Structures are given as C-alpha cells and as structure tokens.
DNA sequence: TAAAAAAGAATGAACGTTCATTTTCTATAT
DNA sequence: ATATAGAAAATGAACGTTCATTCTTTTTTA
C-alpha cells in the first residue's frame, strides 16, 4: 500500500524531463535541480522515486528501450517467414525513429556514450529476444549467413548500420576477423545507386 | 615565434588523453585534472594550449574528424565512376572503424551527443566536400535518386545507416516527408538474407 | 638575463544529496 | 458526515565535495 501512493504522473514527468533535458544538454550537463524544475517538483522529491541520478537515467533508459522494442515488434509474430519478419520489424523501427524522434535520439545518446550502467544495458538487451529467435531461425533455415550474434545487437539499434558498425558499448564483443568478414558481406548487399 | 615554442608533443598528448578519457567516461565526467595527469602536464598548462575545456574538445573533434575524412578519401579520386567512388569510400570507412576504433568511437560519441559546439560541427562537415561533389555528380548523371543532401551527411558518418538515420545533431535538417520517402527507398535496397 | 612556459596551490561556483520541517493523505472514531 | 491523528509525501535550505579556471611562483629556453 505504502509505496504505491507515490504518483505515477510525477514519475512520468521526471522521466520525460530527463529525456528532454538530456537530449538538449547531455547527461552530466543536466542538473537534478533542472530536472526537478521541469517536472514541477522539488529536487529532494526525485529521491523518493529514484535512488540517485544514475538510477534515474538507468530507469529512463530501460523505459525508453522497452517502448522501443514493443514498438518494433508490434506487428511481428512468429508464424511469419524469416524474410517477412525482418521486413516488418525494419519498417516499425523506421516508423519509431520518425514518430518518436525524441525517444530515438535519447537512445542514440545512451547507446553511444558511457552514461548507462552495464547492468542496465544488459537489461535493455533482454527485450530483444524475439529478434534473437528470428535470427536463430534464419540461420537454422540457412537463410542467414553464419555471422556473430553481435551483429544482431547492432541490427536492433539500426537495421542497416548493423552491417557497418564496429563498436557497441558494453560487453557485447566481436573480433576483428568477424568484422572484416561482415564488411565484405555488407558491401555486396547494398546499393547506393539505382 | 613566441606561440610556436609550445611543444606539439604536449598538445598531442592532451588530444590523445582527451580521446581516451572521453571514450571511457564521457566528456563531462572527465575532469581537466585527469586529462592533465594522463598527458603528464599541470592542469594550468592545458590553458596555454586551449582556451578552455570546450575548446579542447572542439579542437579534438575537428582533429579526429579531419583524420577520418582524410582516411576515407585516401584511395578515391575524381576520375573514378560514381559507383566506384562510393565503393572505394565505403571500404575505407569500414577500414577506419576497424583499425582506428578509438577514434571512431570518439566520433560516434561526438555525433550523438550535444558535447560539440555547432560551429565545430559545421567545421567538420566542410571536410566532406569530395563526397558532396561525388553525390552531386551521381545525381547529375541520374545514377542517384533525388534525395536530400541531409542523407549524405548521414552517409558520411555511416554509409549504411544513412538510409535509416533520422537524427543528426546540429543544423542539418530533413523534413518528415523526405525521411519517409527515404525509408521506402531503403527497404527495397537491402537484403539481410542471402 | 629576460621572456616564455610550466607548475601547483588557491578560488569560487555549481552540483548531488541529505536534513529538518511542512503539507497532504487516509483511516478511524465520533 | 466530520474531525483528527498518524504516516507518507513533498519541500526548500543547507552541506560537503568536485571541478574549471586563475593566480603567483618557479623553471626552462634562447
């Protein structure tokens, strides 16, 4: 009973303020006082909802990542063919970046800086299970080349850059040989020209 | 004479320390004192080489971006066909991300956060002129679809994600209609499957 | 020896977090 | 229905620390 009297609206206001301010100024350049002001709350109140600043941004990350994957997988289901599955997910990701651009920008910042705890990154990855399953199915069916799963995490961030990416922050690693192989595969599959 | 007695080695040490520390901790979480220590220099000495912290990171960005574009265009020349030009540049960018991964990671952070001044971003873009020219040539020859130049900046960061990207920090903008058109074009040109 | 370069200590502002207090809510007794 | 007591929630001010930058002094250079 006790813990749940805290207002969900206030929590949401804090999360939204965090997204907007971090997008504009970056994590370390947004003071708690500013987040509080934008959420119409006292600085001290933040600590009733979150342990500290790091916890606030971690939780915000997980929340946005969760909504991202929910959006990405909304029109997908497991009975689809591998090709159709990737196509459907691709289109939803594009739509998310188009329609939820503030959220997308926030994720881009989180995914390219050291601002999120490794633990929370891992937590975010967990929501990608449907994509991992699709990937595995594609490999089983011989439709997808036998590349590292590392590529898949890159795909989940950006379905095209996954062919190009070299760095993903955190513990997901790929060795240079795999990367080189991937680059070669990648070139043959793109066309910048008609 | 005066200004040039300052050691270029010391300046380089400061730039390199900035790259490494910002990669690990982020811009605002790397104190000047730490940069100084890693460069084996007094904090006060940094201010003989750079105006302030912002100037240090701006200059570092421009330096890395310059080396990036130099690398990307090293094997390209204007007598090549449009197709060959893009292929050659693509391969060099891949190589850069592979071999200069610390520099690539630093750029990714700069390109996805508000840590660099708008003015310095623009300065970085200037080095992309050869790519802009190639792009224009491709459109003139009718080889490249009539898409926004905005796409090209995305390409220069990541030749594949340019088909997917929605956000580039700074003043380069693309309207939603253009983006949507681009996404549709993009899907038909990629294959995640063999 | 004089001027530039470098150093380390000092300064003042900004920030995350906590503390002491007030306000709001809710459950019960009248 | 209303009043009230106790607890939870919220607050604003205060604390202690950290950090960018500057100041004064020392070292290096030519």
What does this structure look like?
- 2 copies of one chain form a homodimer.
- Chain A is mainly α and 194 residues long.
- Chain A has a domain at 70-189.
- Helix content of chain A is 64%, strand content 0%.
- Chain A is built from 10 helices and no strands.
- The radius of gyration of chain A is 19 Å and the shape is elongated.
- The N and C termini of chain A lie far apart (62 Å).
- Chains A and B meet through helix 1, helix 5, helix 6 and helix 10 of A and helix 1, helix 5, helix 6 and helix 10 of B.
- Chain A binds a DNA duplex (30 and 30 nucleotides) through helix 3.
Distance between the termini of chain A: 62 Å
Q: What is the count of DSSP helices of chain A, taking H or I runs of 4+ residues?
A: 10
Structural class of chain A: mainly alpha
Classify the beta-strand content of chain A into a percent band.
under 5%
Name the shape of chain A in a single word. Answer: elongated
Order of helices and strands of chain A: HHHHHHHHHH
Proportion of helical residues of chain A? 55-70%
Which tags fit this structure?
DNA-binding, homodimer, elongated, mainly alpha, 194 residues
What's the short version?
The first copy, chain A, is mainly α.
């Amino acid at each position: 009973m006790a813990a749940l009297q805290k207002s969900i609206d206030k929590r949401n206001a804090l999360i939204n303020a965090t997204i907007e301010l971090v997008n504009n100024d970056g994590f370390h350049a947004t003071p708690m006082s500013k987040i509080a002001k934008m959420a119409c709350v006292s600085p001290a109140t933040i600590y009733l909802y979150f342990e500290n600043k790091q916890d606030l941004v971690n939780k915000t990350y997980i929340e946005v990542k969760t909504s991202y994957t929910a959006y990405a997988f909304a029109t997908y289901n497991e009975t689809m063919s591998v090709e159709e599955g990737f196509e459907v997910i691709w289109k939803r990701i594009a739509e998310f970046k188009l329609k939820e651009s503030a959220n997308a920008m926030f994720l881009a910042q989180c995914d390219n800086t050291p601002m999120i705890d490794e633990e929370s990154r891992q937590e975010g990855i967990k929501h990608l299970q449907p994509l991992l399953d699709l990937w595995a199915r594609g490999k089983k069916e011989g439709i997808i080349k036998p590349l590292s799963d590392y590529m898949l995490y890159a795909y989940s961030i950006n379905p095209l850059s996954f062919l190009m990416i070299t760095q993903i922050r955190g513990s997901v690693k790929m060795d240079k040989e795999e990367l080189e192989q991937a680059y070669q595969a990648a070139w043959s599959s793109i066309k910048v020209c008609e």
